[in-house]
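Deliverable D4.2, example record:
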Amino acid sequence: MRALIFLLILSLLTVYGCGSAVTQKTAEPETVPRPNGPAETDDGDDKAGVDHSNADGRVLMINVYVTKYKKIVPMPFEDYVKGVVAAEMPAAFESEALKAQAVAARTYALARLKEYAGSGCDLHSGADICTDPAHCQAYAEKQDMAAIWGSNADYYWNKISAAVEDTKGMVAMYDDLLIDPVFHAISGGRTENSEDVWKNKIPYLRSVDSPYEEEASKFKSSRTLSNSEFVSILRKKVPGLKINQNSLKAGVKILDHTAGGRVKNIRIGNKTVSGRDFQAYMGLNSNNFTLKFDKKTVTISVKGYGHGVGMSQYGANGQARHGSSYIDILKHYYSGIEVTNMWWVLEN
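Output generated by the structure prediction step:
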């Protein structure tokens, strides 16, 4: 088993490089109505009596470097997963979507358990994982979310706890290896192949349709710039760029698209840049964009939010609302995977 997780880590380093996890764009918190009816569990706060053990009674622990405390905090593995789901997905989402997020969080964390030859957190010696979302996964305690949830805090914490407990121990695997369950907020209608965003072609990170995302406030966005502003930004970012701001329509052309419909490369004057670089230069939500040139302005219209690889959180929520189970959702966004209990992974 130790070799199994070690092989997984090697494969992730090949895809993404050493030293850091892929930054995961999460769904933006949205204003939601106060829920009606009882919470899905009426247990109140998560209780110490919740069973975190395997069939033999063993409790799995994880050493988490909690940024706000600036120290490593050992905690039961499933408690940690609850904190990740609270931080990474809006609690107003459907329960099956929250369950899918729980499996993704659990899978990611399990691959980093040093006790089982996982990678650990290379920023904090002795930690399996940290709460910095730019490096590992976001994490929040109930009190952290109270300011966002307000009077709904008990309801939402119970809802998240139920989603985690209902999927207790479940992880996603491909070809007997734990997957890297990358996700993003909104694909814009179709997810991306891994090789169109990062380095390698990963068999379970394939481009798939992602319906039901239109409800997200950031499904579409736009930015309008004057011709001079547009050119000024690009000249600062692209060394040696030669372009005439009075003939932008002729000087700027999208060359090709990815399988997910995003801009792969764009020609700007005498230079060609990637769609993802252009996205960064212009501060766009994604590289799924179109350009409209008027006499004095350029309007950039954008669909989606985040890198577009793996599970779309708003897509997952829409699928859950239309009757899909968390396993259906995971298998849709991660091609060819199986969902199994982590104790099988750890003990075999």
